[in-house]
Structure formats: C-alpha cells, structure tokens
Specification:
Blueprint (H helix, E strand, L loop, with lengths): L38 H5 L22 H17 L14 H6 L1 H11 L3 E3 L9 E5 L8 H12 L7 E4 L1 H4 L4 H8 L1 E3 L2 H9 L3 E4 L24 H9 L3 E7 L1 H4 L4 E7 L2 E6 L9 E4 L13 H25 L7
Parallel strand pairs: 1-9, 2-5, 2-6, 3-4, 3-5
Antiparallel strand pairs: 6-9, 7-8
Helix pairs in contact: 2-7, 8-9
Length: about 325
C-alpha cells in the first residue's frame, strides 16, 4: 500500500483528519430586469419610504395666544354693537366701556405697529377740562378714537377724553352706533358743556363734514371753522382751547371721490381705500385762555376763531414739512 501523501490518508493510523474547507456560499446573481418602455414604464412606481412621525402630546401643543382670542372677542362684540345689540352697561352718552376694553388689542396694534403714532406736546394739556380743537382729514372718522388713545397713554392721570361727532354721521347705519359705543358724543352745546363740567378733555373738529370734501391735493388745508361755536362753549365753560394738528390721517384713508347720496342728512359719501399704514404725528399746541371773552360778542368770537384756526394750520404746515415721507414719517 502506498503511503498517503503528506500523511493525510484517512485509513492510515495517526493521519490527520481530512476536514473539508469551509466554502462561502455564493449568492446567485439576480437577473437584470429589462427596462420597460412605453406605458409600462410610466405606470411603474417605487414604494414610498415610510418615515417615522413624532406624535406631539396634546398638552405640549402651543395654545392660541390670549391676545388673538381677545381680538376675536372684541371684533365680535363690535359687530354686535354696530347692529344695536348691547352686552354691557352704557354711560349717559352711550359709551360701552367694556367694548372699548375688548377692542384694546386692535387699537394697540393700529396705534403701535400699523400707524406708529407719536404724540408731541402732551405737557401742554391743562389738568382740568379743556377743548381740543383738531383738524379732520381723510374719509374715515378715525382721528377721534386715535387722539383719545394717545391722550390716555401720555396723560393717564386725566379723565378719559371724548369727541363730538355730527349727528348726521351718528345716524349712518352700523357706523354711527359703533362710534357712539366707542365714545363719540352728538355735537350739541348741552353735551359739550356737560362734558367740560366733568373736567374732561373734549375733542372737536370745527371743519365738520365739509372736511370730507377736501381732495387729496388739498389735504391739510383747513376749511373754515364755522361761526366759532367752540369758542362760545369754551368761554361759557371757562375752559381753555388747545389747538391740535393731526398728520397722517389724510393719506391713511384718502378721499378718491364723493358719491352723491341724499340720505341720513348727508349730501355725499366719500369713496376711499382700506386704511393704509401711514405714519401718524400728533402735535399739541399751547392753550388759549378765553375765559374773558363775551360769548355774545360776535366780532370777538370771530377773531378768536381765526386765531385758533391759524395756530392749527401753522402746526400742520410745520409737521408736513418736517416729515421725510408719508409712510416713514
């Protein structure tokens, strides 16, 4: 018997075991799928990849900000007030103080961010009641509530200001009732004297509804101040007259045209745009003491009326000349 090679004969005593070599399995080659053409290629889609999603617990989600909730509540109450539905008590002149508080978020947004109102000369306001004589610009009656908010912020120690509005404006459906609930008072001598007796700041716009007829080209050019009724009221009440110039309202709601309308005591209705984000500047001038004026002396009343008008016109011209642009201020 021949020797096994290298002693690996399994039948020979002492020979090493002939264990087979480990063979790695060979994966069969995948057959290539031929590319499909035509409609088969378009209809073949790959399976979408499923990504893990994180479920946020209900308690961890951000709630609706309280400011937005208050804003929605205020707008809802304003709509109800415009429809004549009252949710809270009214003062003797028709103001709904709860509605004013509910609309505070909207008013603060318009004042601080949208129109960026600045007030100059608030230190000129006397401690007691006074008559604030201001210009009216633009198509919307928004100067009254904005000026009132500015005075409340700068001089919080003073009683809340009120503004007089033409009775024809307060007769306009929806708008008139809403203005009255926000603080507007019918422009009558009796109401004016009563508010001044309460030591309030009374805001008047002597141009009246004639100011709405001013074209955009003639903005900040004051119309006549009537027969000086505000001077007579100030003289009777012994209250000073404070001139006020408001710049920015004319461009915020420009009068594009006047639509003839012989209803509600109005001859026309202004056509305008939605309120634009112009920069507002309000200037308060030096007060005029008119206690010594005779309310029955028409010539003296006329002189003081023109004097106050000239003061407001001068402040308007200076403010318009100093601002850089309509929107930047």
């Amino acid at each position: 018997m021949a020797k096994g090679v290298l002693g690996n004969d399994p039948f020979q005593r002492g020979a090493a075991r002939n264990e087979p070599l480990a063979v790695q399995p060979v994966e069969p080659r995948k057959a290539r799928t031929p590319a499909r053409k035509g409609w088969k290629a378009r209809t073949t889609t790959s399976k979408p990849t499923v990504q893990a999603t994180t479920v946020v617990p209900e308690a961890a989600r951000l709630p609706v900000p309280a400011e937005k909730a208050d804003l929605f509540k205020g707008v809802y109450r304003a709509l109800r007030a415009a429809l004549g539905l009252t949710d809270g008590p009214l003062d003797p002149h028709g103001e709904d103080s709860q509605l004013v508080r509910d609309l505070a978020p909207l008013a603060n947004f318009l004042y601080d961010q949208y129109w960026r109102v600045t007030l100059q000369g608030s230190e000129n306001l006397p401690a007691g009641g006074c008559l604030l004589v201001a210009n009216h610009e633009g198509a919307l009656p928004i100067e009254g509530p904005i000026l009132r908010l500015a005075l409340t912020r700068q001089r919080p120690e003073l009683p809340g200001a009120r503004w007089l509005a033409d009775e024809n404006v307060l007769r306009i459906p929806l708008l008139g009732v809403l203005l009255n609930r926000l603080g507007a008072v019918t422009a009558t001598p009796e109401n004016a004297l009563q508010l001044l007796a309460e030591r309030r700041q009374l805001i008047v716009f002597p141009e009246g509804i004639q100011a709405v007829k001013k074209s955009f080209r003639h903005r900040y050019e004051l119309r006549p101040f009537g027969r000086g009724g505000f001077v007579k009221i100030a003289a009777r009440a012994g209250a000073p007259i404070v001139p006020v110039a408001i710049v920015g309202a004319a461009e915020a709601s420009p009068v594009l045209a006047n639509l003839p309308l012989h209803s509600f005591g109005l001859r026309s209705v202004p056509i305008t745009l939605p309120p634009l984000p112009t920069k507002w500047c309000i200037r308060v001038g030096q007060p005029f003491e008119v206690q010594q004026i005779d309310p029955e002396e028409s010539s003296e009343i006329g002189q003081w009326t023109e004097r106050v008008r000239s003061s407001v016109q001068q402040m308007l011209q200076e403010t318009v000349r100093q601002r850089r642009s309509i929107f930047a201020g």
